[in-house]
């Protein structure tokens, strides 16, 4: 499968300079909130001549300042792009069936309990799913991929859904102990006066579509840190990656810098043991195991459908005083009566 173009995130000539900035905590997010927006401040690092040229340094600062002047909420997106390339590109490609299962999962745990396997990770969803969701939300454009960035300093979570032209819709989730991820995602976006941001019908459609893929991304991130799940990360193009590594170790400064520039764009594919199931199948009117999910009324056969799963905190320990994150898998009800792809089913929400 061909690799996705990273140009919608950043043009190639800006990736290495932005990666240098991404190794520094140059954006500070505050806790004061208006709707879903947060106050923030810049902490531009001093230039290191060995790490970035004066020209590239000034160019990135100019881009950052222009973004802040045009729209303050664009700064977290810039910050995420810089960290994305600083950490190395990690790509996860779930299958259509896996996506359908995780679309039926609710993230009912405090945002402070959220985790993901890498500081930044990119998700490329199947085209069939992206187009299906775009149609469902009446979005005229289709998202190419989604990037999730969990900041190690502030513990804020920033999720960007990128369209093919480089534009993005994004959400910021603070490490809130009192609100769940679902509750924060449901908050309206308002300006400093508490008024909702004006949107056209087309913009509203794209926003809801992007939010659906962002929620799907968060569910996958939580799944990927489940106990016992072993992830592997390997270069998508091994020969090219080894060539870039060799260049980056060259004694020639020009060749060494060029190799490092190439490495910022090298994609690593993240995968996990495919025997690990994201969902369960039930051949009867209720689920297998201890979680009963309901039966069809007498004399009526239940049709195939999804029953929702959950991420939530469960009491445990002496006196049930401790909490641990658990995953209740979604269930494909009446899988024995279904002969198509598991994506072609209805969903049941309770």
Shape: globular
Oligomer: single chain
Query: What Rg, in angstroms, do the CA atoms define?
Result: 22 Å
**Main sheet record:** 7 strands, mixed
Total helical segments: 9
Q: Overview of this structure, please?
A:
- The chain is an alpha/beta fold and about 350 residues long.
- The protein folds into 2 domains: about 90-270, no CATH class; about 280-350, no CATH class.
- Helices cover about 30% and strands about 25% of the residues.
- It contains 9 helices and 16 strands.
- The chain has helices at about 10-20, 55-70, 75-85, 95-105, 125-135, 180-185, 200-225, 240-250, 255-265, and strands at about 25-35, 35-40, 90, 105-110, 120-125, 145-150, 155-165, 170-175, 230-235, 265-270, 280, 305, 310-315, 320-330, 330-335, 345-350.
- The strands form 4 sheets. It has a 7-stranded mixed β-sheet, with helices on both faces. Strands 11-15-12-16 form a 4-stranded mixed β-sheet, with no helix packed on it. A 3-stranded mixed β-sheet has the order 4-13-14.
Characterize this entry briefly.
This protein has 350 residues and is of the alpha/beta class. The chain has helices spanning 12-22, 54-70, 75-86, 96-103, 127-136, 181-185, 201-223, 238-248, 253-263, and strands at residues 27-34, 37-42, 89-92, 105-108, 120-123, 143-150, 157-163, 168-173, 231-235, 267-272, 280-282, 305-307, 309-316, 322-328, 331-333, 346-348. It contains nine helices and 16 strands.
